[in-house]
Amino acid sequence: MAAKSISRIFVVCLLANLCSVIAGNKSGFRNVPASSEKCPHLWTQHEDNCYMMYVIPATREIARLECEETQGALLVNILTPSEREFVLDYWDQISPFTEVIWLGLKKDSENTDDFFWDYGIELDFTDWINDEPDDNELEDCVVLVKDLGWKVHHCHNTEYPFICIKSRV
Protein backbone atom coordinates (compact mmCIF):
# COMPACT_ATOMS: atom_id res chain seq x y z
CA MET A 1 0.00 0.00 0.00
CA ALA A 2 2.83 2.43 0.73
CA ALA A 3 4.05 2.09 -2.85
CA LYS A 4 0.81 3.68 -4.14
CA SER A 5 1.44 6.93 -2.23
CA ILE A 6 5.02 7.32 -3.43
CA SER A 7 5.37 9.87 -6.21
CA ARG A 8 6.78 8.55 -9.43
CA ILE A 9 8.86 10.56 -11.83
CA PHE A 10 9.12 9.59 -15.45
CA VAL A 11 11.44 11.28 -17.87
CA VAL A 12 10.13 11.31 -21.39
CA CYS A 13 12.77 12.18 -23.95
CA LEU A 14 11.33 13.29 -27.24
CA LEU A 15 12.95 14.05 -30.59
CA ALA A 16 16.01 16.28 -30.80
CA ASN A 17 16.98 15.86 -27.15
CA LEU A 18 13.89 17.72 -26.03
CA CYS A 19 12.92 16.27 -22.69
CA SER A 20 10.08 16.89 -20.35
CA VAL A 21 9.48 15.51 -16.91
CA ILE A 22 6.14 14.06 -16.00
CA ALA A 23 5.63 13.84 -12.25
CA GLY A 24 2.94 11.52 -11.00
CA ASN A 25 1.31 11.15 -7.62
CA LYS A 26 -1.97 9.92 -6.23
CA SER A 27 -3.68 13.17 -7.22
CA GLY A 28 -2.92 12.69 -10.90
CA PHE A 29 -0.33 13.75 -13.46
CA ARG A 30 0.97 17.14 -14.42
CA ASN A 31 3.55 18.21 -16.98
CA VAL A 32 6.64 19.91 -15.69
CA PRO A 33 8.70 21.35 -18.56
CA ALA A 34 12.43 20.71 -18.36
CA SER A 35 12.95 24.45 -18.80
CA SER A 36 10.73 27.39 -19.66
CA GLU A 37 13.64 28.84 -21.66
CA LYS A 38 13.64 26.06 -24.27
CA CYS A 39 12.28 25.93 -27.79
CA PRO A 40 8.93 24.33 -28.68
CA HIS A 41 8.70 20.61 -29.39
CA LEU A 42 10.55 19.60 -32.60
CA TRP A 43 12.53 22.85 -32.67
CA THR A 44 16.29 23.07 -31.99
CA GLN A 45 17.83 25.87 -29.99
CA HIS A 46 20.95 27.85 -30.86
CA GLU A 47 21.73 30.89 -28.75
CA ASP A 48 18.51 32.95 -28.53
CA ASN A 49 16.76 31.34 -31.51
CA CYS A 50 14.85 28.18 -32.36
CA TYR A 51 15.17 26.38 -35.69
CA MET A 52 13.07 23.77 -37.50
CA MET A 53 13.91 22.22 -40.87
CA TYR A 54 11.35 21.14 -43.44
CA VAL A 55 12.87 18.44 -45.64
CA ILE A 56 9.96 18.35 -48.09
CA PRO A 57 10.79 20.88 -50.83
CA ALA A 58 8.57 23.89 -51.44
CA THR A 59 8.67 27.05 -53.52
CA ARG A 60 10.11 30.03 -51.69
CA GLU A 61 6.70 31.63 -51.27
CA ILE A 62 5.16 28.45 -49.84
CA ALA A 63 8.20 28.06 -47.54
CA ARG A 64 7.85 31.67 -46.35
CA LEU A 65 4.13 31.24 -45.71
CA GLU A 66 4.68 27.96 -43.87
CA CYS A 67 7.21 29.59 -41.58
CA GLU A 68 5.20 32.77 -40.99
CA GLU A 69 1.59 31.60 -40.89
CA THR A 70 1.91 28.08 -39.53
CA GLN A 71 4.91 28.43 -37.23
CA GLY A 72 4.96 32.13 -36.32
CA ALA A 73 8.52 32.21 -37.64
CA LEU A 74 10.59 33.43 -40.59
CA LEU A 75 12.65 31.75 -43.27
CA VAL A 76 16.10 31.29 -41.81
CA ASN A 77 18.43 34.25 -41.70
CA ILE A 78 22.16 34.02 -41.14
CA LEU A 79 23.51 37.09 -39.41
CA THR A 80 26.87 35.82 -38.10
CA PRO A 81 29.56 33.27 -38.94
CA SER A 82 28.62 31.23 -35.85
CA GLU A 83 24.99 31.14 -36.95
CA ARG A 84 26.13 29.97 -40.39
CA GLU A 85 28.10 27.11 -38.80
CA PHE A 86 25.14 26.14 -36.64
CA VAL A 87 22.74 26.14 -39.63
CA LEU A 88 25.12 23.98 -41.68
CA ASP A 89 25.61 21.49 -38.82
CA TYR A 90 21.89 21.35 -38.03
CA TRP A 91 21.03 20.92 -41.72
CA ASP A 92 23.59 18.12 -42.06
CA GLN A 93 22.10 16.27 -39.06
CA ILE A 94 18.52 16.51 -40.32
CA SER A 95 18.99 16.06 -44.06
CA PRO A 96 22.59 15.22 -45.01
CA PHE A 97 21.84 14.64 -48.70
CA THR A 98 20.07 17.95 -49.27
CA GLU A 99 22.35 20.32 -51.19
CA VAL A 100 20.34 23.58 -51.30
CA ILE A 101 17.89 25.37 -48.97
CA TRP A 102 15.99 28.66 -49.18
CA LEU A 103 17.16 31.64 -47.15
CA GLY A 104 14.99 34.52 -45.96
CA LEU A 105 17.10 36.86 -48.09
CA LYS A 106 15.76 38.64 -51.15
CA LYS A 107 16.46 41.60 -53.42
CA ASP A 108 14.74 44.79 -52.38
CA SER A 109 11.71 45.21 -54.63
CA GLU A 110 12.42 48.92 -55.11
CA ASN A 111 16.19 48.74 -55.55
CA THR A 112 17.23 45.53 -57.25
CA ASP A 113 20.89 45.92 -56.27
CA ASP A 114 20.33 45.63 -52.51
CA PHE A 115 19.46 42.52 -50.53
CA PHE A 116 17.48 42.48 -47.29
CA TRP A 117 16.24 39.80 -44.93
CA ASP A 118 12.48 39.28 -45.17
CA TYR A 119 11.93 41.41 -42.08
CA GLY A 120 13.90 44.38 -43.48
CA ILE A 121 17.30 44.09 -41.76
CA GLU A 122 20.23 45.01 -43.98
CA LEU A 123 23.16 42.69 -44.56
CA ASP A 124 26.13 43.00 -42.23
CA PHE A 125 27.44 39.45 -42.68
CA THR A 126 27.51 37.82 -46.13
CA ASP A 127 28.60 34.45 -47.43
CA TRP A 128 28.30 34.80 -51.20
CA ILE A 129 29.69 32.17 -53.55
CA ASN A 130 32.33 33.58 -55.93
CA ASP A 131 30.82 35.85 -58.60
CA GLU A 132 27.62 36.31 -56.58
CA PRO A 133 25.42 38.19 -56.39
CA ASP A 134 25.18 38.24 -60.15
CA ASP A 135 23.31 40.78 -62.28
CA ASN A 136 20.54 38.48 -63.50
CA GLU A 137 17.35 40.54 -63.21
CA LEU A 138 15.20 37.38 -63.13
CA GLU A 139 16.85 36.17 -59.92
CA ASP A 140 15.57 37.86 -56.76
CA CYS A 141 15.85 35.22 -54.02
CA VAL A 142 18.81 33.64 -52.28
CA VAL A 143 19.60 30.00 -51.54
CA LEU A 144 22.31 28.49 -49.39
CA VAL A 145 24.33 25.89 -51.28
CA LYS A 146 25.89 23.42 -48.85
CA ASP A 147 29.63 23.87 -48.39
CA LEU A 148 29.72 26.77 -50.89
CA GLY A 149 27.66 29.72 -49.67
CA TRP A 150 24.87 32.01 -50.85
CA LYS A 151 23.65 32.11 -54.44
CA VAL A 152 21.05 34.34 -56.07
CA HIS A 153 18.26 32.24 -57.54
CA HIS A 154 14.91 32.79 -59.22
CA CYS A 155 12.04 32.74 -56.74
CA HIS A 156 9.40 30.83 -58.67
CA ASN A 157 8.88 27.28 -59.91
CA THR A 158 11.79 25.81 -57.95
CA GLU A 159 11.32 23.83 -54.77
CA TYR A 160 13.89 23.40 -52.02
CA PRO A 161 13.81 22.37 -48.37
CA PHE A 162 13.94 25.21 -45.86
CA ILE A 163 14.55 26.11 -42.24
CA CYS A 164 12.31 28.32 -40.12
CA ILE A 165 13.70 30.50 -37.33
CA LYS A 166 12.03 32.20 -34.37
CA SER A 167 13.03 33.62 -31.02
CA ARG A 168 13.03 31.31 -28.03
CA VAL A 169 9.73 31.10 -26.22
TrEMBL record:
Keyword match Signal: yes
C-type lectin domain sequence ranges: 46-155
Signal peptide, first to last residue: 1-24
Keywords per UniProt: Signal
Lineage top rank: taxon: Eukaryota
UniProt-recorded name of the protein: Alpha-N-acetylgalactosamine-specific lectin
Coiled-coil zones: none
Gene3D superfamilies xrefs: Mannose-Binding Protein A, subunit A
Alphabetized PANTHER family for the sequence: MANNOSE, PHOSPHOLIPASE, LECTIN RECEPTOR RELATED
Pfam families the record matches: Lectin_C (PF00059)
